[in-house]
Amino acid sequence: MPRTKTLSDEQVLDAALKLLHESGPEALTFERVARACGLSAATLVQRFRSKAGLKQSTLLLAWDRLDEKTAQLAATVPKTPDGAVELLVALSSDYGGIETYAEGLLVLREDLRDPLLRSRGAAWKAALSSALEGCFSQVRHAPQGIGLLTASQWQGTLLWWSFDPQGSLESYVEASLRRFIYAIVVSRSAG
């Protein structure tokens, strides 16, 4: 008798995450994830109980990875306004082109619908804002809350780029954030 193929939950969720990013949240069915990872749908039902459980576990893995990437970047970028831009440009590199970004908005919808996932988003906002705040700690005239202001500008920049996706997202984000920082921090210290 052939031996049953086993995969860790993380390996299964990797396959589910890939499927989610390629085909959107509605693609996360036990049947499709089973085909993607090579396990039976029944095995996946035993592990994740429901489609909602599978989706939540997949998105929690995505949050874990975003938290890890954010912490790693925050630890390595210079603690300067340029470091803040570098951090956010690096985070933007995962969005890809306009189609990938648009699919990502469907994933965001799922995060907003689920209280546990929404709380992970709130925690990431706090961690990202704190990391960005640290990049402005040596700037004399940085306004209070500059970390959240910069993160908010970044999120708005992503959205505005999506309406007219000319050039690379990373270049657009970098140019926009540099203008923002100049307007908020540099011009403020000159006044």
Please provide a written account of the structure.
With 191 residues, this protein is mostly helical. It has a domain at 62-190: Tetracycline Repressor, domain 2. 76% of the residues lie in helices and 0% in strands. It is elongated. The chain starts with 8 loop residues before the first helix and ends with a helix. GO terms for molecular function: DNA-binding transcription factor activity; transcription cis-regulatory region binding.
Q: What keyword list fits this structure?
A:
single chain, mainly alpha, 191 residues
CATH class category name of the domain at 62-190: Mainly Alpha
The beta-strand count equals 0
Task: Please identify which CATH superfamily of the domain at 62-190 we are dealing with.
Answer: Tetracycline Repressor, domain 2
CATH-defined topology of the domain at 62-190? Tetracycline Repressor, domain 2
Fraction of residues in helix? over 70%
Succession of helices and strands? HHHHHHHHH
Major β-sheet profile: none
The coarse silhouette is elongated
What class do helices, strands and sheet pairing give? mainly alpha
Number of helices: 9
Q: On the 0-100 scale, what is the average pLDDT?
A: 92
Cα Rg:
20 Å
